[in-house]
Fold Iron-containing redox enzyme.
Amino acid sequence: MTMPMPQARGPLSAALLDALGTLDTASEDRTADLPALAERRIEEGTDVLRDNDLQLSLYCLYELYYGGLPGVPADAEWHPELIRLRRVLETAFETALRATVTLPDLPEPTAAAVSELLFALAAEDDGPSVSRFIGQKATLDQLREFLMLRSIYQLREADPHSWAIPRLPVGRAKAALVEIQADEYGGGRADQMHSHLFAVTMEGLGLDSTYGGYLDRAPALVLAANNTMSLFGLNRRLRGAVAGHLAAFEMTSSIPNSFYARGFRRHGFDGAVVHYFDEHVEADAVHEQIAARDLAGGLVEAEPELLPDVVFGACTVLALDALAGGEQLQAWKQGRSALYRPDRSSDPADGSPGTAAAALDAAALAEGVPA
Ligand SMILES: [Fe+2]
Ligand SMILES: [Fe+2]
């Protein structure tokens, strides 16, 4: 499942992709300057969550731990300079995430109190609702953009949280995580894997279902939401954050998926094309209970010191949903595409003219992407 090589978005990602692309030539290792270059970019005082160059660089480094990048040796995941670079970016990224999130008062470290807090946080969430817009108003081209942006995660759905399985103690939390992940991976049936169901939906709308096929279209905040999961999954000290993240993820899934299903049916899609959403309305109503009580709550009972990170992980889902969803909705409401394009910023302040449809068609024509 190697994704296509992405396009650089600035000096760091350009240098990183160049270094990765020449690692196997053995002529010259170009990774040595990368950590210092990243530090300089961060010291410029950039908004790390919205910095396309930094977020793409971190995404590419994380990809070495998943399906890899074309032409890059598999053992690049253990290259010391690349790990050093990853840690520079991760430190800045985690600092930015913690500065973005406001933690509520922490409850007693019991499963009941933790799940009650997580359900309350999800219920209070009044962020911008992409799902309502999809259900009621989105055009066909906006449905396609929605799928393209979601595809960065959904075509490898569940993988980032799976990193936590060996990092949890034997007991209730680990059993709960495996129970949820078993559903996400199709319960032993490849054609029921949620990543596969999402690919079917994409193909039903004429989109390319290659993993990472639309990475070049995803703005920084979408990459940041994906990088958050890898950050939590790949750092054992953050295993509490994985549990909280998955709990909030599942809690904010069932109802939105019913809106998504409605939006796609409004445009005449049904059956296998909408099955992904229907499946999540049911599955995640169950998953949210297991994730909140047994995974997040069970982990806090086993390791009470993880409570703040469990809550932090849950809050990052709500915060990044609000930021990325808000950016997406603002673009659509202004008649713009929500996709990233290298020739101009995806910043909402960018008032470039053009409809989502025109932008999508132009991008598709330019690069042969099915639209
Ligand atoms: Fe799923
Ligand atoms: Fe789920």
User: Anything to note?
Assistant: The radius of gyration is 20 Å. Confidence is low (pLDDT under 50) at residues 345-371.
